Amino acid sequence: MAMTMTGEVTLPAARPKVWALLNDPAVLKACIPGCESLERTGDNGFAAVAKVRIGPVAATFKGKVELSDIVPNVGYTIAGEGEGGIAGFAKGNAKVSLADAEGGTRLHYDVEANVGGKIAQLGSRLIDGVAKNMADKFFASFAEAAGGAAAAAAAAGPQAIPTRASWIRRIWEWFMSLWR
Predict the structure, then answer these.
(1) Average pLDDT of the chain?
(2) pLDDT digits (tens, 9 = 90+) for 113-134
(3) What distances in angstroms separate CA 98 from CA 15, 29, 43, 116, 166, one per listed residue?
(4) Any idea which fold 2-177 has?
(5) Runs of H (alpha helix) within the chain
(6) Higher confidence at residue 10 or residue 59?
(7) How many helices (H) does the chain have, and how many strands (E)?
(8) Which contacts (CB < 8 Å, 24+ apart) does range 74-80 have?
(9) In sequence order, what are the residues at sequence separation of 6 or more whose Cβ sits closer than 8 angstroms to the Cβ of residue 57?
């Protein structure tokens, strides 16, 4: 099953600082939800282990990530793949770019991914929701690393009035938590 995701966030730090944080395995490990380890395997490579729960399926994914098209303080392409045993696999790439913005740096990303196995059987809505939630958590943590707690609140965006879809998602998440 293929999935795409695009987004951007303004971080309250200068581009060189954001770039340094994007290339720091300790910072990334702390910001990636469920990440148990992230270690350099070369100049542009990393090995990662992350625990992920998508609805009733929980798995530990072991994978590798390689950076390419690196332009310091501007961006790079991330290509990665991970295996989660019988839960399935994930592979994909993301283009990450940085630009100056009022009050800091705008980080833009375009993600293309494919998932297979049990997780692909859960359906695109559930997987998309989990991916969006993980991205939101990552950027809130990353914004805090870049500029503090106030920055994390700003990166999370204004608190909107819950929509019908968000209430349904919350009820679904509660229901699925009963199965854990």
Answers:
(1) 80
(2) 887 887 777 777 777 777 788 8
(3) 7, 20, 21, 31, 30
(4) Alpha-D-Glucose-1,6-Bisphosphate; Chain A, domain 4 (3.30.530)
(5) 15-22, 25-31, 124-147, 149-156, 164-177
(6) 10
(7) 5, 7
(8) 74/98, 80/48
(9) 87, 118, 119, 122
